[in-house]
Design a protein that fits this description.
This protein is α+β, with helices and mostly antiparallel strands and 171 residues long. 20% of the residues lie in helices and 37% in strands. The protein has 3 helices and 8 strands. The chain has helices at 2-24, 29-32, 147-153; strands at 40-45, 48-52, 57-62, 70-78, 95-105, 114-125, 128-137, 165-169. Strand 3 (57-62) and strand 4 form a beta hairpin. The longest helix has 23 residues, at 2-24.
């Protein structure tokens, strides 16, 4: 009788865990860690490094003359879709987006605003891992402080993400 009760209790706890993880979006957190992964330090060229951390943070370190450093929290992402109805670029095997909330920025007016980073074609060929990326954000008086508004506004249909660059994973 005690085993049956224990089994029922464990089954209820498992079901509750699935519900909690699904409702908080944490179920996607595991897919963020799959290989190849965006987690790591990436060379963006021109003296710029992008870092995606397993604690869901992002940072750009720009040691060029621009010195355009910023960082933030990855508050939402998908490894299977974009934030709008855009089509899969170049029929890539993998693509997605990250919603970033800036927590630090060389221009303090950007703190607590959002940007969207789109990526596709994350792959490792001959030991070199690369990904195509594009970052969209509003600037000036139009900066966005609401995450849902950022996802709805920073879209391909509104003129963002027409140009992608390549990141290369640093060794």
């Amino acid at each position: 009788m005690k085993q049956k009760k224990l089994f029922k209790t464990l089954a209820m706890l498992l079901a509750l865990s699935v519900i909690i993880l699904s409702s908080t979006g944490c179920s996607d957190a595991l897919s963020f860690l799959t290989e190849p992964s965006l987690i790591g330090e990436w060379d963006a060229g021109y003296g710029t490094t992008w870092t995606f951390s397993s604690d869901s943070t992002f940072a750009e370190d720009d040691s060029s003359a621009w010195d355009w450093d910023y960082s933030g929290d990855i508050v939402k992402y998908s490894n299977i879709t974009y934030n709008d109805e855009s089509e899969n670029p170049d029929d890539a095997d993998n693509y997605g987006y990250l919603l970033i909330k800036y927590t630090a920025h060389v221009d303090s007016a950007y703190v607590d605003t959002y940007s969207v980073i789109r990526w596709y074609n994350l792959q490792t060929v001959d030991g070199v891992t690369t990904v195509e990326y594009s970052e969209g954000y509003l600037y000036g008086a139009d900066k966005i402080t609401d995450p849902d508004e950022a996802l709805a506004t920073i879209t391909e249909a509104n003129g963002y993400f027409s140009y992608f660059s390549t990141l290369t994973l640093s060794e």
